[in-house]
Each structure stands twice: as C-alpha cells, then as structure tokens.
Amino acid sequence: MSQGPQTYVHIFRRALRSLWENVYLNLVSMGVIAAAVLLMGVYLTFQYNLTQLMNSWDRDVQVSAYFHADVPEDRRESLAARIGEDPRVARVAYVSEAEAGAWLAERVDDLAPVLEELGSDLLPASLEITLAQTDNVERDIAELKPLLDPADFAEVDHGREWVDRFEAFVEAVRVLGGAMGLMILVAALFLVTNTVYLVIYNRRDELEIQKLVGATQSYIVAPFLLEGFAHGLAGGVAALLALKALHVLLIGRLESALGAEALTSVSALPAQWLLGLAVLAVVLGVGAASVAVTRFLATAP
C-alpha cells in the first residue's frame, strides 16, 4: 500500500474517529496516565524541596561555641574579632548571657518569669560562627577548632551529626520513592496497555480485513500510536495542571497556618522537570499503545 499524502490523512482521521468512538476507554487511559504522572510529580516535588533544604543547610553551617562563665568580657570580644578574621568564617556574632535568655524567653511562652527567678546568667554566653560557603564543611570545622581553645570555651557544637543523619534519611526516602515510582509506572503501563488492547479488540474485524488486503504493519499500527500520543499528551497536561493546583493549595494552607514566611520554603518544580514529566506521559501513552497493538498483531490470524 502506497504511502502518499492521502494515506497520512486517513491515518490521522482514523485515529480521531477511534478516539470519539471509544471515548470511555480513552478517558480511562488518559486518567491512568494522569494519575501516574501526578504521583510522580508529587514525589519529585517533595524530593526537590528536601534537596533544596539540605543544600541550604550545607551552605549556611553555623558553629556555636559556649564560653566558660569565668571568661572576662574583653577576652570574649577579642576572641570574636580574631575568629572573624579567619577566611573560613563569614561572620561572628557574640551573644551574651542576657541576650541568650531574652532570645529563649521570646520563643517559649511563660518562660520569662522562670528565667528572671533563676538569674540572667543561667544560659552561657556564646559565639555564633557562620562558615563561609565551602566544598568541605567537615574539614573547615576541624581546621577552625584550634581557634576555639578549651580554656575559653566549655563546648563547641556545629550540629553536623544531626544533619548527616537527616541526609541519610533523605537518601533512604529517595531510594524508596524511586522504587515506588518505578512500580507506579509499570502498573500504569499495564493498565493503559490493556485499555488500548480493548480498543483494538473492538476493531479486530477491520484490522483483519486490512491485513488480508495487504496493508502494511506500519499502516495498521500508526493510528493507534497517534491515539497513544493523544492519551499521553492529554494525561500529561491534566497531571501538570493538577500538580499546579496542589502546589497553590499547599501554599495557601502554609500561609494561613505558618504565615507568609512559609511561602519561601516550598518551591514548585523547575520548568525542565515539568517538561520531563510531560515527555514521560507521552512516552507512557505511545509505549502502551505500541505494546498493545504488537501483542494483538502477534496473536491475530
């Protein structure tokens, strides 16, 4: 069978007619693709924001060095100035006992009377040291420790152990989410393939006649691939719109519950990630259609 312009027009028209004649099955196929891509998008959004959070912690590492109570004020200020000159340090803030107590009382309700009763020097003075951006946080902290003489400082805390544990947790979530995402895609491919197979089965008499009169396999398969492309495109657009709606809803909830500052803590996926989800939806639709029609042709007489 020749492949002229009329052939391509026929293939396109046949795909459109099949979409209309089997509207329910086609809507089911689009819905399955949309649900699978939406779940993948939600997972990727969660993972993307966790990664952004971890990166911000790595860029803004803070070391808290707590003074002994008997270190004089001028000694504390000179240590703050000397440490601030180190190239590994972005800034140093000296926090006195009174400032530490006021900071805690401001954030914990009904604690101010207790602090007044126990005394203003209940909490130790400290230096809050913020490291400059670095490619090796552990090394810079180790090189900074000689400046933090145990004779002056009772304790030095940089919180990296907690961050490392959280990074391990995030990595476990990433692996588990990847495995679940793969299972979701496989399940979606199975459901869409079987849905498209029902459409093909409804047209089995027409397809068998086409084979008998000498139609090429590409001529028979092409309309179904176009249908799969339409399923994927429609499902992908629906999934991206739903993902956008979920993000707006989440931002609204955070704003009402935590205030406007929470808006900066949850980011939408970048444009290239969204494009990748759309491509994934199209590949899922075309792939399912290809598998279904190939399976039918292999078993057809």
3D structure, described in words:
The mean pLDDT is 77. The protein is of the alpha+beta class. The chain folds into two domains: 189 residues, no CATH class; 96 residues, Alpha-Beta Plaits, CATH 3.30.70. It has a four-stranded antiparallel beta sheet. Helix 1 packs across helix 9. The protein is rod-shaped, with a radius of gyration of 31 Å. It has ten helices and four strands; from the N terminus they run ααβαβααβαβαααα. 21% of the residues are buried.
Topology (elements, then pairings):
Blueprint: H1 5-21, H2 23-59, E1 62-67, H3 73-84, E2 89-95, H4 97-107, H5 112-118, E3 126-131, H6 137-144, E4 153-157, H7 160-202, H8 204-212, H9 217-258, H10 271-299
Antiparallel strand pairs: 1-3, 1-4, 2-3
Helix pairs in contact: 1-9, 2-7, 2-9, 2-10, 7-10, 9-10
What are the defining features of this structure?
Alpha-Beta Plaits; 301 residues; alpha+beta; 2 domains
Oligomer: single chain
| Beta-strand percentage range | 5-15%
Give the strand order, joined by hyphens, for the main sheet.
2-3-1-4
Main sheet characteristics: 4 strands, antiparallel
Q: How many β strands by DSSP?
A: 4
Low-confidence stretches: none
Label the overall shape: rod-shaped
Structural class estimated from helices and strands? alpha+beta
Element-by-element helix/strand order? HHEHEHHEHEHHHH
Tally of contiguous helical segments: 10
Q: Tally the structural domains.
A: 2
Radius of gyration: 31 Å
The overall pLDDT average reads: 77
Question: Termini, distance in Å?
Answer: 20 Å
Helix content: over 70%
